[in-house]
Amino acid sequence: MKGLSIISIKFICVAFYVFMISCQQSKSSEESNDTSEIKFNIPENFVLEELYHISANKQGSWVALAEGADKMIYACDQRGKIYYFKMPEKGEVVQTANVDSLNLDIGEAHGLLWAFNSLYVAVNKNWDDTIADENQRGSGVYRITDSNGDGHLNDIRMLLKLEGAGEHGPHSFVLSPDGKSIYFIAGNHVLIPESLKKNSRLPINWGEDNLFKPYLDARGHANEIKAPGGWVAEFDSNGENWELISAGYRNPFDLAFNQDGELFTYDADMEWDIGMPWYRPTRICHVTPGSEYGWRTGSGKWPEYYPDNLPAVHNLEQGSPTAILSGAKLKFPSKFHNGLFIMDWSFGTIYYANLIPKGSSYSATREEFLSGTPLPLTDMIEGSDGNLYFATGGRGLDSHLYRLSYDGELTASEIKPNDSGKELRQLRHQLENYSAINPEEAISKAWDNLDHEDRFIRYASRIALENLPTDGWQAMFYSEESPVKTIEAGIALARQGDKKDQGKILKKLNQINWEGLDEQRQIDLLRNYALVFIRMGQPDSQSRQAVIKKLKPYFPGSNNAINRELAQIMLYLNADGTVKILGDLLEKHTAEKTNISNQMLSEETTLRSEQYGPLIREVIAKMPPSEAIYYGMLLSHATEGWNKELREKYFLWFYDVLSAKGGMSFKAYMENVRLQAMSNVPKEEKAYFEELSGVYSPNTVVENLPQPIGPGANYSGSTINQFLWGDKMSDYNGSLADGERAYQAALCVLCHRMRGEGGATGPDLTQIRTKFGRYDLLYSIYSPNDDISDQYAFTLFHLDNDKKIAGRILSETKDSIKIMPNPLNTSYTVQLAKSSVIKQELSPISPMPSGLLNRLNEKEITDLFAYLLSGGDESHELYNKTNLE
Question: pTM score, two decimals?
Answer without folding.
Answer: 0.85
